[in-house]
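subagent[fold] <- orchestrator: predict structure for attached chain, return tokens only, no commentary.
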Amino acid sequence: MSIIVWPYDLLPANAIAPNPSAFSRGGGRSLGGIERKTRTDRGFWKITLTNIPVFSTAQRRTWSAIRTSLAGAAGLIAVPVWSYGTAPYVSGEREPSVLTPHDDDTPFDDDTLYEQGAILITMASAVAIGATVVQLRIVEAAPNLVGIRFSYQHALYETGPALNIVGDVWTVPVFPMIRAPIPAGAELECDMPTCLVHLADDNAMDLEFNVEELSRASVSFIEAVDYWSDLAVSS
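subagent[fold] -> orchestrator:
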């Protein structure tokens, strides 16, 4: 199944709500009225893009094309989860992407340069499916990797408090559990992480145009955990 990427530049949401949904079960209340919760899974992401402008012809056609391509909640799409407020920029403030040539100092054939994120963090050691703790290496980032988000191949993660710090390597827990293997040295997407998702329901992209033709819309998604599960079984 093909994966499309939400066109953030054309359909920019005014706000995004990427929230972890823990998966726990209770065994009923005790005599004192307290219900003990047991975590049975690391959980998954619920993401909502709100107040998206759908004004121009290009925006409306793109919205319709995405809706048609997804054909309901079974379709796959990677949505951007911008995290400017928590991203570990070296300056402490949002920084633009950097335009650089290739390693041999040459541009692309059309003389354009390669766009590289302002943040560079790599996986310090290989990590397997199901891991809940990772080691991240700072290459170009602020020296604090607590509470940041990153993605790898459209799998979105959020770090917890530091468990250990040795030089530029931070050992941190992550939510959710690792969806697919990440090799040592892999570059992680921190400037504009993405999350592979399904529509929250078949009608999540229904759209109503008003008389003034100045429509805005919101759409909710749920992480495509089934995709990662199927990938793990087939690998």
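orchestrator: received. Logging for downstream: Residues 54 and 60 are 6 Å apart (CA to CA). Residues 1-24+39-82+193-235 form a domain with the Phosphorylase Kinase; domain 1 fold (CATH 3.30.200.190).
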